[in-house]
Each structure stands twice: as structure tokens, then as C-alpha cells.
Amino acid sequence: MSLLSLTVLGCLVLTACCSWLLPRKAQPWGIVACTAAFLAYFSWTSLLILTVTSLAVFFLLKRNKVHGAALLCAVGVISAIFVWFKLKGAAAGSLAVVIPLGLSYYSFRQIHYLFESYKGKLEEHTLSDYLCWLYFLPTLHVGPIHRFPEFLRDLRRRRWDTAALSNGLERILYGYAKIVIVSNFLIAKQFNLLVVQYSNSSHLWFAEYLKALSRWMNLYFQFSGYSDIAIGFSLIMGFRIMENFNFPFLARNIAEFWQRWHISLSSWCRDYVFTPMASVTRRPGISVLAAMLILGLWHEFSGRFVLWGLYNGVAIVLWHQFQNVKKVMPAWQNRWWLLFARSAAVVATFNFAVTSFPVTSYLYSRIRAVL
């Protein structure tokens, strides 16, 4: 299923219309019904999983005060479903075919909901509020992994706003331009001609670099374009969904890069992996590695993504260690040297991110060869 298809676009437009044309109290249920119909058409499995798990979580929290054991049990069940399908997808070699539609996103939203409820940070809300958040079509398939408190605030305050409509349409157009023009045409077709040209030459190392560059640029424009479309339709429906990208290739270090790339996922890993582990272990380095390991496994349950997550985690730990050394180093006073250093940091971070997949894939192949 492609978000560029007319069927998906029609479903998004219909959902946006239902979010305003129905009576006020029926609008959340209208959004839920549209999304449920969408899932019934494209993925009955996903509809079943989402319905059973969301109702189970809601009524568990509604009827009982959640204790630590119940929290861990609920999180464990949701995680087990997520892991099972990920492992099944890895074994089949095609995550897109095996993973139920939207599972990666609504599973992490439910875990967020469980933790925030356990901490007592959620306002009183109804079943329709909760289901509207989980069955929110614009963010179902490609995120962002938006948080419930902000969604609930918008749900209660939303009013028709022509400025938001205009901004939403602009973001949608911007997103489609990223995907169709920049990613599908300029990168996937035109830039890849250069990749093919160098693949047939003696500069194989440069060809591999160009392949990695093409992969990351295509991934960025595709994913950020889909996020723009999701944010745009959300604005039309009266919701301000969190941004998912903030010019990550301008980051000056790897820690900043992961604060700018897939922000909803990296911030989720920070809040629900890094922070709890750091509070228990008192070892930020181990907590960083754990968070990046989860981030890697979120993409794919495989040895190479384990290595890729740890590779980025080690880089972040080393960068934080360098900050301690930097404090005792003399500060650069010359603004030109400072400008050069910052530019060099951006270039180095960009190339580290771009080459992370081929480097870790090579290391993984060597490890497997030895074992």
C-alpha cells in the first residue's frame, strides 16, 4: 500500500471531512470509524490487533490502579506482539508484507500511554478521546509517534481555522513534492544514473559511497515527505502533530543528529528507555546503548541492525566523553577558525550517518564469517 495512491488520498480526505461535518460529539467517533474502515480494507489483522490491545489497555487502566507488575505485563504483551511480527518479517525477508499496517507506530503509542498513566500524568478522558488518538488515520501508517496529552489538548480545543487549512494544504503539497519530484525522480532516477556510472568503473569505493548517499537521501525525502503529508492532514483536521525531522543533515554531532532525525521515535527511546535505565543503573553510557539498540531493532530484528544501533550508540557515548575533555581545552577565539570547525563538524556528522549502514553491514559480514 502506497500513501501516493488515490485510494489512500481519498480515505484521508474523507476522514478530514468527517472530522468537521459530523456533530461535535460524534466527530471523534467519525475519525475512528473512517480509520477502522481503512484498516478493514487494507489489513484486517492490524484492525484486530489494534482493537483488542487498545480496548484491553483502556479498560485495564480504567478499572484498576496500575501497579508495576501490571504495567510490565501489559507492556510485555504489546512488545511480544510487535517482536513476533518483526521476527516473522525478518524470516520472510519482507517486513512490508508481514508486519500489520501501522503496528510499529501504535504499539509504541500504547506503551507511551501505559507509562504516562502509571505516572499519573494523563488527564481524565473518555474512550472516544483515547480511540480517536490511536485510530488517527494521518499518522497511522508512517507516524509520527505523537503523544496523547498533546492530542487530547487539541481535541478539546480544536476550532475551524482557515489559516490552519492553508498551512495544512501547503505541507501536503510540500510532502508530495519531496516524494515525487526529489526522491522518486531526482534521486531514484537521475542521481542513480551517476551511481551506475561509477559502479562500472575502477572507483568502486566511490560507487559504494554514492549508493549509501542515495539511500540516505532517498530515505530522508521519502520519510520526511510522508511526515509532511501526515502533519498537513492533521492541521486540516485541527491537530498539531509533532515534527519528525529538523534538518538532520545540518547536525554538528551524532547526538544532535538523532535529536533531529525521526524525532518522535528518538524522543520515545529517550523517555521510555534511556531515562528509566539511567535512573536505575546510574550509567548514562549503558542507557544510551540500550536506547539506540531499541531504535535499531524498531527498524528490523536482525544482527546487522543490532550492530547499527550499537554503532551509533557508541558514537554518542564517545561524543559525550569528548565534551568532558573539551571543557579543559582552550576556547577558539578566531571566528573564522570557529566557522571552519563548525562546518567540518557538520560534514563529518553527515558522512558518519551516511556511511553507517555500509560500515556496519561490512562489520556484520566479517563477524558472521568468523563465527
Architecture overview:
- The protein has three domains: 6-157, no CATH class; 162-236; 248-370, no CATH class.
- The chain starts with 5 loop residues before the first helix and ends with a helix.
- Helix 2 crosses helix 3.
- With 371 residues, the chain is mostly helical.
- It is globular, with a radius of gyration of 22 Å.
- The protein has 15 helices and no strands.
Summarize the structure.
The protein is mainly alpha-helical. It contains 15 helices and no strands. It has helices at residues 6-21, 27-42, 44-63, 68-92, 95-98, 103-118, 127-134, 148-157, 162-199, 204-236, 254-260, 263-281, 284-299, 303-326, 335-370.
> Based on DSSP secondary structure assignment, what is the total number of beta strands?
0
Q: What is the helix/strand order?
A: HHHHHHHHHHHHHHH
Question: What portion of residues belong to β-strands?
Answer: under 5%
Q: On the 0-100 scale, what is the average pLDDT? A: 88
In whole angstroms, the N-to-C terminal distance is 39 Å
> Sheet with the most strands?
none
Q: Which helices and strands appear, and what pairs or packs with what?
A:
Layout: H1 6-21, H2 27-42, H3 44-63, H4 68-92, H5 95-98, H6 103-118, H7 127-134, H8 148-157, H9 162-199, H10 204-236, H11 254-260, H12 263-281, H13 284-299, H14 303-326, H15 335-370
Helix pairs in contact: 1-2, 2-3, 2-7, 3-6, 4-6, 9-10, 10-15, 12-13, 13-14, 14-15
